[in-house]
Amino acid sequence: MSAVIEVRGVTKAYGDKPVLRGIDLAVHEHQAVALIGASGSGKSTLLRCIDLLDEIDDGDVLLDGEVVTDPSVRPDRVRRRLGMVFQGYNLFPHLTVLENVVLAPVRAHRRDREEARAHALELLDRFGLADRAGDRPDRLSGGQQQRVAIVRALATRPRALLLDEVTSALDPELVGEVLALVRDLKADGMTMLLATHEMSFAAEVADEICFLHEGLIVERGAPEQLFEAPEREETRRFLRRLLDAKRL
Amino acid sequence: MDDRRAARAAAKRRRARRGAATATVSTVLAVVLVVWLVGSTPGWPDVRETFFSWEAFRTSFPDVLSGFWLDVKLFVIVELCVLVLGLVVALVRTTRSPALFPLRAFAAAYVDVFRGIPVILLVYLVGFGVPALAFEGAPSDPVLLGGIALTVSYTAYVAEVYRAGIDSVHASQRQAALAVGLTEGQALRFVILPQAVRRVVPPLLNDFISLQKDVALVAILGPLEAFRVAQIEAASTFNYTPLLAAALLYLCVTIPMARLVDVVQRRSRAA
Ligand SMILES: Nc1ncnc2c1ncn2[C@@H]1O[C@H](COP(=O)(O)OP(=O)(O)O)[C@@H](O)[C@H]1O
Ligand SMILES: [Mg+2]
């Protein structure tokens, strides 16, 4: 069976600064893969490249076995099949919560408006946001906004979700509600690739952890193996620094 | 506890009342002073007769008013054209495709050139230049020519206002719009432009206040709009009061517009 998302030898530089230096990665159906690594190691860039929001220099990205980084492929068609959630929510401030969620199903997927609304309300209800459907995003807490952003990504029924540090911008007491939602999605069997700083959460939901260091995945493995017995010095140093930071 | 709160409230009311009283008294004093100063100048009796003659005002007002209708029609039509054309120019300037480079360069040059030429000069150039070209179907109606000159000039200003608005929408909004699967065009239409336009309403309205005054420049081409009518009346009666009547009519549209800008600005700040 081919992977839902596959990344083959992807490189990317900004100017003459290499940011991704040959990434290989596969996310299979119902799998969750977590990207960890220091800030600046290239996690966001990799996710943007997979969603074709940034152009890669070399290599291939495949979605369900189809090469999508070919210039002949229309990027919007590809993005419609993936859901992306950003660190800073990026909700559309001029639209209500419900309008944020139905915009893409109606405009990009040409779904029936009533059907899209019903689906959106169902998702909002499921994640405890039904009573905020008519509000503007700036009336919501950060945790609520990020949950709406996840619902917006889910509303197009994507093949996989790309989550970029979805809790990093949140106040500590709001992190839990967003992680609970991601946990739910994992239980539903959603295929996910997530960049995260929450190691215990990564250990809990991810089937595989990839440690990104200066644009390369230097170590990967099951959570228990990577967190309990990391083989590479860089991985050990990164994990030790995180532990120290937590103790302070 | 309650006593102190009541005392504080009473003190606040007293302060407010004293503030209002002070403002009223100082305004009245200022007006009286100005009136007295102007009234005591040696030329005042003559000025009052030539600029503030009630008789001249009454006889000239109907003509000036009917001239003003032309101004109103002209600026409503020019405003609408400018709103649309300015957006087109701004959109051309924000495209990224290399194939559209010539168009982009043209739009940039257009804005540079027509923002840099005084409006009055442009009215002259279009108003007298286009008919002189004498090509087939060249417009000769001075109102139309003046309207074209104003449209050309204001489109350049308004395009820059729109562009500033589009630039002010953060790049992450475009990224989020693309990420949900919208095309570039849909992202612009449903996500970026609605936010941009909301932000530029106050500066757009400010440009329209200028436009409402600049329609008077069309007078140099001859059509009988308010300023021109007033000028003619003034010249034939040696009394300048009709110009004052015209000025009052302009204020009737520009001041409400200015208050509208205040309201919109306050509301957008509250949102
Ligand atoms: N648009 C960009 N232009 C130039 N450099 C960038 C851009 N985006 C990211 N970078 C650089 O690429 C490197 C990786 O960034 P990023 O992918 O955001 O890392 P991470 O998400 O792991 O913190 C950083 O050094 C960053 O400065
Ligand atoms: Mg990042």
- Which CATH-level-2 architecture of the domain at 5-88 and 162-244 in chain A? 3-Layer(aba) Sandwich
How many beta-strand elements of chain B?
0
Shape of chain A: globular
Low-confidence stretches of chain A: none
Largest sheet descriptor of chain A: 6 strands, mixed
Q: For the largest interface in this structure, which chains are involved and how many residues does each contribute?
A: A-B, 25 and 18 residues
In a nutshell, what does this entry contain?
Chain A is α/β, with parallel strands linked by helices.
Can you give a write-up of this model?
The complex is a heterodimer of chains A (248) and B (271). With 248 residues, chain A is an alpha/beta fold. Helix content of chain A is 39%, strand content 24%. Chain A has a six-stranded mixed β-sheet with strand order 6-7-8-3-9-10, sandwiched between helices. A four-stranded antiparallel β-sheet of chain A has the order 2-1-4-5, covered by helices on one side. In chain A, a hairpin with a 2-residue loop joins strand 4 (58-63) and strand 5. In chain A, helix 3 crosses helix 4, helix 3 runs parallel beside helix 5 and helix 5 (142-154) runs parallel beside helix 6. The termini of chain A are far apart. Chain B is mainly alpha-helical and 271 residues long. Helix content of chain B is 84%, strand content 0%. The radius of gyration of chain B is 26 Å and the shape is flat. Chain B starts with a helix and ends with a helix. Classes of the chains: A alpha/beta (248), B mainly alpha (271). Adenosine-5'-diphosphate is lined by residues 14, 19, 37, 39-45 of chain A.
